[in-house]
């Protein structure tokens, strides 16, 4: 059903939980995981991500990481189109009282 799942990552405190959940989804759908980070790529961030992926993704051959700069929403959606993503997973930070950090999914099937 969803052969390519994308996860937008922002190196937030919830990133590791989001990666674990996205990994669970690609396991269910036997798909590929595409991580999208909009921001500057640094050796520190790259190392941090690699450590998390090693803990949660046994098959790193099914995980692709894309680093881009630009406006987050537009860049994420454009990357999803370019990569032919079927499902986009986003995390919500708890910034306002009453909002909980939940996982949102957006099916990109046409």
Helix content: 25-40%
Derived structural class: alpha/beta
Radius of gyration: 13 Å
Overall pLDDT confidence: 85
- Beta-strand portion reads 25-35%
> Could you give the count of β-strands?
5
Task: Tell me the number of helical segments per DSSP (H or I, 4 or more residues long).
Answer: 3
Largest sheet: 5 strands, mixed
Strand order of the largest sheet: 3-2-1-4-5
Element order, helices and strands? EHEHEHEE
Descriptive overview:
This protein is an alpha/beta fold and 110 residues long. It is built from three helices and five strands. It has a five-stranded mixed β-sheet with strand order 3-2-1-4-5, with helices on both faces. Helix 2 (43-56) links the parallel strand 2 and strand 3. The protein is globular. The mean pLDDT is 85.
Task: Walk me through the topology.
Elements: E1 4-9, H1 15-29, E2 32-38, H2 43-56, E3 63-68, H3 72-83, E4 87-91, E5 103-107
Parallel strand pairs: 1-2, 1-4, 2-3
Antiparallel strand pairs: 4-5
Compact overview of the structure:
With 110 residues, the protein is α/β, with parallel strands linked by helices. The chain has helices at 15-29, 43-56, 72-83, and strands spanning 4-9, 32-38, 63-68, 87-91, 103-107.
């Amino acid at each position: 059903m969803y052969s390519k799942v994308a996860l937008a990552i922002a190196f937030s405190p919830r990133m590791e939980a989001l990666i674990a959940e996205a990994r669970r989804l690609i396991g269910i759908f036997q798909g590929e995981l595409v991580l999208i980070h909009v921001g500057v790529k640094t050796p520190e961030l790259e190392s941090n991500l690699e450590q998390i992926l090693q803990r949660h993704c046994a098959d790193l051959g099914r995980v692709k990481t894309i680093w881009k700069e630009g406006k987050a929403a537009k860049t994420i959606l454009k990357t999803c189109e370019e990569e032919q993503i079927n499902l986009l997973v986003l995390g919500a930070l708890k910034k306002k009282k009453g909002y909980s950090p939940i996982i949102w999914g957006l099916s990109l099937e046409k």
